[in-house]
């Protein structure tokens, strides 16, 4: 890229993406899929070579999956930068004897969760539907862990083996994030004054998605944010930011940036009033009952702001994001749910919704 070149061919070149398909980017919900779609089951062609390129096969009619069962398997193939792969299972477990795995289903504390080929793992199965095959049920892996349930934390170990660091893997610098673009997958950090850097190390460093420690989530759009980081040197001699976090090593999550505070361990109930699942948020109308003082105060502030803005009061509702829904649960409007409550700089919300 950045220069022009021409190739003479004597036959048509097949499209990079199958007709009607679009790549939604690494570490986005969906990955491969029809434009506007989201599931692997929607994909008509796989990736890779030979038998590994097969798409998931639907379950035979009448077959049901035990969503509470845990299975063991071996990672057949996984693309770190694309964020998905396949797990080989015992013969007869599933059609094709393999399960698709998406990066969000990996239980990990790594900033960029991944799996390694031939790794032994444990997981559950999640059934889902595809609009491309009406009535058919597909399955994918969920809650992928090490055998026994331990998290798959391998990034630091792999980095120690493969990367060259300035001052060591765990040496930390401070600086200001000029910007980070989540759609382009990179940004730039300016180091604070006062560091005696080795010759050739610039004060401004490129920060790529794999080195933004967002607690295993996709990084947000950000700018002018104080942070700490390491520095590593690529094989081509370029210096880049490594494992960028907030001060004290805190992952750069939306919850941390908004100062989210969990308000005790009590469980509350309510009804899903709005569920904008494509946009990733919703509202829950609280059932009558007492609330923690801080939550009640935040709701009162939200009520006053609504009256001031539109001269119309709001019901007692709590905001939630898709990431606040307990793993494996799906919400719909009118559904009765339970949850914990939190406060942040913007108000009050629900978490661990189930």
Automatic annotation (TrEMBL):
Query: Which ranges are annotated Basic and acidic residues under compositional bias?
Result: 42-66
- Compositional bias, Gly residues, is annotated for 28-39
**InterPro entries tied to this protein:** NA-bd_OB-fold (IPR012340)
Region ranges (Disordered): 20-66
Q: What is this protein called?
A: CSD domain-containing protein
> What organism is the protein native to?
Noctiluca scintillans (Sea sparkle)
């Amino acid at each position: 890229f950045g220069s022009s070149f021409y190739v003479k061919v004597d036959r048509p070149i097949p499209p990079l993406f199958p007709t009607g398909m679009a790549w939604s980017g690494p570490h986005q919900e969906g990955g491969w899929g029809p434009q506007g779609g989201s599931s692997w089951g929607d994909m008509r062609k796989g990736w890779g070579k030979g038998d590994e390129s097969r798409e998931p096969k639907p379950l035979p009619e009448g077959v049901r999956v035990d969503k509470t069962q845990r299975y063991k398997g071996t990672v057949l193939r996984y693309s770190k930068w694309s964020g998905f792969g396949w797990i080989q299972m015992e013969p007869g477990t599933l059609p094709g004897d393999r399960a698709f795995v998406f990066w969000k289903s990996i239980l990990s504390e790594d900033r960029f969760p991944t799996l390694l080929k031939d790794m032994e793992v444990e997981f559950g199965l999640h059934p889902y539907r595809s609009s491309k095959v009406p009535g058919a049920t597909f399955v994918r892996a969920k809650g992928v862990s090490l055998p026994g349930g331990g998290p798959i934390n391998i990034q630091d170990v792999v980095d120690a083996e493969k990367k060259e660091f300035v001052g060591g893997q765990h040496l930390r610098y401070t600086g200001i994030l000029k910007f980070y673009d989540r759609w382009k997958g990179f940004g730039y950090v300016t180091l604070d004054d006062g560091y005696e850097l080795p010759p050739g190390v610039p004060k401004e460093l490129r920060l790529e998605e794999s080195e933004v420690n967002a607690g295993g989530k996709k990084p947000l759009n950000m700018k002018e944010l104080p942070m700490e980081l390491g520095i590593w040197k690529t094989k081509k001699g370029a210096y880049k930011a490594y494992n960028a976090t907030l001060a004290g090593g805190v992952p750069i999550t939306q919850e941390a940036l908004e100062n989210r505070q969990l308000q005790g361990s009590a469980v509350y109930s309510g009804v899903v009033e709005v569920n904008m699942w494509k946009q990733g948020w919703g509202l829950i109308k609280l059932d009558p009952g007492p609330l923690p003082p801080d939550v009640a105060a935040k709701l009162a502030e939200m009520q006053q702001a609504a009256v001031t803005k539109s001269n119309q009061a709001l019901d007692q509702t709590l905001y939630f994001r898709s990431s606040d829904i307990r793993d494996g649960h799906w919400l719909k409007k009118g559904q009765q749910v339970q949850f914990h409550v939190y406060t942040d700089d913007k108000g009050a919300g629900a978490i661990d919704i189930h």
